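pasting for the record
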Amino acid sequence: MAAPYPVNATPPAPTAAPVIRTIELSDLGEALRLGWEDFKAVPSHAIILCLIYPVLGLVLARTVLGYAVLPLLFPLAAGFALLGPFAALGLYELSYRRERGEEASAWHATEVLRSPSFGAMLGLGTLLLALFVIWVATAQAIYVAAFGYEAAAGIPDFARRVLSTPQGWWLIVVGCGVGFLFALVALCISVVSFPLMLDRHAGAAGAMVTSLQAVAANPVPMAAWGLIVAGLLVIGSLPFFLGLAIVIPLLGHATWHLYRKVIEPITVSHAPPPLAKVPRYAADFPVSLFQWRRKDS
């Protein structure tokens, strides 16, 4: 894979705004393929970085069932789409290292913590977390509006309410519509933000603006990418969230390669260094007119 600048060379500090490319739907498949190659090359990180997500999913499911707030199980699972871009920081670092031809192992994922822009990443991650909390609260309010505060007796009763009553159909339509809006906001502000901050040490505000511009320049591919992310997260969540151990690394690596396709890489100028100035003295005035005699002497 060609690196955007020579291996072992320090990229220049960007002074101009990132150049956004127009991509095709085929580029999404290529990004997923390259992401899968990264996942196969560094498979050990799936356990270290992503084991927390299936475990968290199981804990959330048990908590939901235990406290009789079963309606929140789906919104909590859907929240992975909102927090995923921030959770995949270590995966971007691994893809970045492989791209530069450097050693990449699970432990190298923690190098992202030393990034000069980690504070900006943390700030944007906090924004996504707030978005997740607001989404869960909104989902709870929608359920209460449909069925009131009476808790479901169990999974069969909850399924009957949602799937066989007018209130349940209203809940599905409104809940999915509102959830789509939350996911759209998260996609627009973060689709290339975190890779851009890692690659060019951009600020959070500038990265979000670039992400919005990238979505505006590629509305159809970005919409398709959002559907791909949502579909893969649903598939990964079905077997008790265990599939997320594969889906999240795949999407994390693929997001890095999508960023490379959307944002024009930085090029390094190989201009020759300026000539060193030789001090001139007044006594050298006659000789300086004849440089060849000066060299011989």
